[in-house]
Amino acid sequence: MFFKILKLKPLINPTTIQSCKISSTSASITKVHRKTYARTYPTIVVLPNGSSINSRYHEPRQIIKLPLDLSTLTDAQRKARLEKRKPKQKIIVHEEVDDTFNSNRYINLIKK
């Protein structure tokens, strides 16, 4: 009655038990243990025909390029694409150096 007249809230009685609701979003000491996270990153998805779409992706990537379907290409275009995929062979050039140095020409410059 006294609290109602003064409009004061009563102090918490230490004998009462307070319950704590723990959810998946509350973490105070450790990390949140989830396999998938709610955070997504803005990315650009490039389609095989060259058009692009802005979307959100679970990993931080800027551009995702979708593969081209080789069955829709002509034979010449398909061969050109497959040649680009193969590793390029390194050209080894062996040069023969002519050694015309003669140490006998410089003997007179050596001090004894």
UniProtKB/TrEMBL annotation:
GO biological process: translation
Cited PROSITE patterns: PROKAR_LIPOPROTEIN (PS51257)
Keyword field contains Ribosomal protein: yes
GO cellular component terms given for this protein: mitochondrial large ribosomal subunit
The keyword Endoplasmic reticulum belongs to this UniProt entry's keyword annotation: no
Membrane-crossing residue ranges in chain numbering: none
Keywords, alphabetical: Ribonucleoprotein, Ribosomal protein
Pfam families: Mitoc_L55 (PF09776)
Domain of life, per lineage: Eukaryota
GO molecular function, one term: structural constituent of ribosome
InterPro entries, per the entry: Ribosomal_mL55, Ribosomal_mL55_sf
Name the UniProt record assigns to this protein: 39S ribosomal protein L55, mitochondrial
Gene symbol of the encoding locus: mRpL55
